[in-house]
Amino acid sequence: MEQLTLFGFFNFIDGLWSSCGDKQIIVFTTNHKERLDPTLLGPRRMDVEVPMFYCTQCGFRLLTSNYLEIDRHELFNHIKSLLEKA
Fold it and tell me: What is residue 24's three-state secondary structure?
């Protein structure tokens, strides 16, 4: 298995940005923000920090409504079942 490099990761993220326009949320989680490379944090990378101690379906739907202006989506029930398992 090939090892993921920071350069490769940036290329992947930049590809998502260019193909999705300005309407996307990419969720990254970490228990050790201080260990992240500083170039990950900032504009067009990880530019919004939302502490999520326990995300419920209600919280997820609030995020999608506030950041993407999406109030209904066919995947909401699937996401609900995934959050209930977590």
Answer: coil
